[in-house]
Amino acid sequence: MAEKINLIYFSPTGNTKRTVEAMAEAAGGEPGEMDLTVLGEARRRFGKDDFVIFGMPVYGGRIPAAAKQRLENIEGENTPCLVVVTYGNRDYDDALLELSDLVKARGFVVKGAAAAVGRHTYGEIQVTRPDETDFTQDKAFAAAAFAKPQDAPEPTIPGAFPYRKGGQGGSFRPLTSSGCTKCGICVRGCPVHAIGADCSTISDACLSCFRCIRSCPVQAKNMDTKEYREFADMFTKKLCVRKENQYFL
Ligand SMILES: Cc1cc2nc3c(=O)[nH]c(=O)nc-3n(C[C@H](O)[C@H](O)[C@H](O)COP(=O)(O)O)c2cc1C
User: Fold this and answer.
1) What separation in Å is there between the alpha carbon of 166 and the centre of ligand 1?
2) What is the rounded distance in angstroms from the CA atom of residue 141 to the CA atom of residue 26?
3) Residue 74 pLDDT more than 90?
């Protein structure tokens, strides 16, 4: 593998980050990492000797609009890449096609595409995923993609254009219990700066991504409402059958 591997991901709760990191392992060496949940990343230009792995979660069958906007700082020059989405065992709909179209328009050449299952943000769906079986498959896929001859055709990716409506955050707003120590981890970690300095005021920018809930060291951030619990129970029952990852070369 001659090219330098670079990971570019938006991953509020970590499924996508862990998935693209597993893929990078197939190349060996330390990948460069660009975390799009952190605002203010500089403009980046990649060349022919780079290899980029793009990773995004699926929000309503699309790429999160907030993440899509952050790709505008990134350009390739016939740079080979993989496009990867992770989704919560419902469906990825048009998200993988959308990500592929986006990066192609920015100068990248798609060598492979993957739709991988991760724990859903809401309810108790596939809570242990991505798991070791997923990572083994991810690595095998990446190794095959890295080995593809330069002139091999691009993969055919499922999805339809015009894309379905989606890409917005959810409507649940995290609550903050009296146990909050105001440590500020949630404030600093919020991908869209939706949490006020008091750790509890939430603005309309909130994506309902649950990063604050998962990262709170004292479990003060929560979604403990009747409305959420009912939705989560229904959703958990509906999506209980394990789906397998899909890879396109
Ligand atoms: C607002 C929102 C919308 C989502 N929409 C979908 C969806 O359409 N299909 C699906 O299977 N999972 C959906 N999910 C679940 C995420 O795609 C899944 O948990 C993903 O792996 C999260 O990635 P991350 O851990 O890198 O943030 C949604 C999650 C959120 C927060």
Assistant:
1) 11
2) 9
3) yes
